[in-house]
Every structure is written in structure tokens, then in C-alpha cells.
């Protein structure tokens, strides 16, 4: 078993894909959490200059340190067998991941800009439109999983995103997505992590 340490703020946010993948794989790791940058108790100003790119998360895997949240998550996905079984399947997994990441990044940008009108449009137009496209893609692949009729990181990442949406009713018109999210939520290692992880507001 590798010696693993994940360093991030005490938030789900950019580190949660890694945490979910590590949980799924049953990989024991040190979950190092520091106070967020806006918290008076944060050690981030001291830690930041010591990181390779001035960012978190950092994934330490034995003697190697990997930066960038998606690079870290993609690596763990390969290690736990959720990255697809061929180059084509890996690309199909990445396709779904990138759709979800576009939604996350757009939402975060609007949130921190305090763009109320933009956030309303994102919630009422952008997100339902994307979920409709994902529902169609899921149906075209057999309706059970996004890639290769097997559980992959694409399904797990979709679960993570949808679970964090403020309104669960957003899935009402997308039965296949709703069913997928429910099935992922009931995978024993995922269920255990979600029920026992530290409670944070984002």
C-alpha cells in the first residue's frame, strides 16, 4: 500500500474528487486540512510559497508530489481502476469530467464575483441544459454508466457534482442521471465516506 497524504483546505471543493476516489479504492491516507484562506487561523500564507505552483491540493504519493486537482484525481482514478480500460474509454471518461468541471468552474467564478443574475441564470438555464445533455449521453451508452457499461470516475464525478447542488429537484426531469447518482451513493466505500467526512459548507 502506498504512503499517501492529501493536503487541502478544510473544504470539499477541489480536493473532494481525490477523497472520493481514495475512499472508493480503500486507500488509507493522511487527510491534511488547513483553515481556508479567508479564515483568520489559516496557515496558507506561510505554506503557499513552499508549494510548487502556489496552489492546493497537493497529493504526496510515496516520494512524489503531484499538484493540480484534476491531475491528482486522474492519477488516483487510474490507480483504483476507474479511468477506463482503453485509450478511447479514458477519453470518454475525460469528456464527462470536463463537462462537470466546466460547470463547477463557471459556478465558482460567479459565486466569488457575487454575480446574482449570473448565478440565477447558471442555476436555472446552464445547469439544467448540461444535465439534459448528460442524460442523453448516458442513455446513448446504455443508461447504466457513462463509459463501457462499467463504473468509472465519470460516474463518481457526476455524483459528486449533483450531490452538492443546492436543489435536488434539479434531477426530476432526468431519471437515468437520478438513478445513477442513487446507485453511486450506495456503493459501500462511497456511502461510508460521505456519512463520516468532516462537515464543511463547501
Strand content: 5-15%
How would you classify the quaternary structure? single chain
Structural class: alpha+beta
List the secondary-structure elements in sequence, H or E. EHEHEEHHHHHH
Give the low-pLDDT segments.
none
Cross-sheet strand order for the largest sheet: 2-1-3-4
> Rounded to an integer, what's the Rg over CA atoms?
17 Å
Largest sheet descriptor:
4 strands, mixed
Average residue-wise pLDDT: 95
- What's the number of extended β-strand segments? 4
How helical, in percent, are the residues? Answer: 40-55%
Tertiary shape:
globular
Helix segment count? 8
Distance between the termini: 30 Å
Structure commentary:
It is a single chain. The chain has 202 residues and is of the alpha+beta class. It contains 8 helices and 4 strands; from the N terminus they run βαβαββαααααα. Strands 2-1-3-4 form a 4-stranded mixed β-sheet, covered by helices on one side. Helix 1 (16-25) links the parallel strand 1 and strand 2 (30-34). The radius of gyration is 17 Å and the shape is globular. The mean pLDDT is 95.
Amino acid at each position: 500500500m502506498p504512503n499517501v497524504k492529501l493536503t487541502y483546505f478544510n473544504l470539499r471543493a477541489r480536493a473532494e474528487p481525490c477523497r472520493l476516489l481514495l475512499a472508493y479504492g480503500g486507500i488509507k491516507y493522511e487527510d491534511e486540512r488547513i483553515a481556508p484562506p479567508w479564515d483568520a487561523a489559516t496557515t496558507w500564507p506561510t505554506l503557499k510559497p513552499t508549494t510548487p505552483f502556489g496552489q492546493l491540493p497537493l497529493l504526496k504519493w510515496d516520494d512524489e508530489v503531484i499538484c493540480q486537482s484534476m491531475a491528482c484525481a486522474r492519477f488516483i482514478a487510474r490507480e483504483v481502476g476507474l479511468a477506463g480500460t482503453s485509450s478511447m474509454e479514458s477519453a470518454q471518461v475525460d469528456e464527462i469530467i470536463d463537462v462537470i468541471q466546466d460547470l463547477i468552474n463557471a459556478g465558482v467564478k460567479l459565486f466569488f464575483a457575487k454575480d446574482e443574475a449570473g448565478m440565477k441564470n447558471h442555476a436555472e438555464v446552464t445547469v439544467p441544459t448540461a444535465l439534459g445533455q448528460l442524460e442523453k449521453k448516458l442513455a446513448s451508452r446504455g443508461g447504466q454508466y457513462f463509459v463501457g457499461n462499467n463504473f468509472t470516475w465519470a460516474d463518481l464525478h457526476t455524483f459528486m457534482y449533483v450531490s452538492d447542488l443546492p436543489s435536488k429537484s434539479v434531477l426530476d426531469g432526468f431519471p437515468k442521471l437520478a438513478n445513477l447518482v442513487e446507485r453511486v451513493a450506495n456503493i459501500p466505500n462511497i456511502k461510508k465516506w460521505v456519512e463520516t467526512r468532516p462537515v464543511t459548507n463547501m
